[in-house]
Design brief:
It holds the Pfam family HIGH_NTase1. This protein is mainly α. The protein folds into 2 domains: about 10-55; about 65-100. Helix content is about 50%, strand content about 10%. It has 5 helices and 2 strands. Strands 1-2 form a two-stranded parallel sheet. The protein is elongated.
Length: about 100
């Protein structure tokens, strides 16, 4: 499939429930499964409506802007920095925001 985040199985499930559903809520309820959440179905429907192709979503993340994190997040960021998984970090806190005004 060319549409982003959709497989043949998901397409068949969506198409089948679309034909048998009268309302959008009914469609979501009938499409949902153990492996397919309502949110994922909604994202897939948006991808279909907006014609978002898989190749459009194939890109690398070159930077990350961190707005906040906890202790576990600090450990994760340290690991990422040490392994050079992402080149650029921008950690902005309240002090930095106030100093830049």
């Amino acid at each position: 499939m060319e549409i982003y985040d959709i497989t043949e199985e998901i397409y068949a499930r969506i198409y089948g429930t679309m034909l048998n559903s009268q309302k959008y809520i009914e469609f979501l309820k009938n499409t949902k499964s153990r492996n397919l959440s309502n949110k994922r179905v909604e994202r897939i429907i948006l991808n279909i409506l907006l014609n978002i192709k898989a190749k459009m979503m194939d890109f690398e993340i070159n930077y990350v802007r961190i707005l906040g994190f906890n202790k576990k997040g600090q450990e994760y960021l340290k690991e990422i920095r040490e392994n050079n998984k992402i080149e650029n970090f921008n950690v902005e806190n309240e002090f930095q925001k106030k100093m830049s005004l």
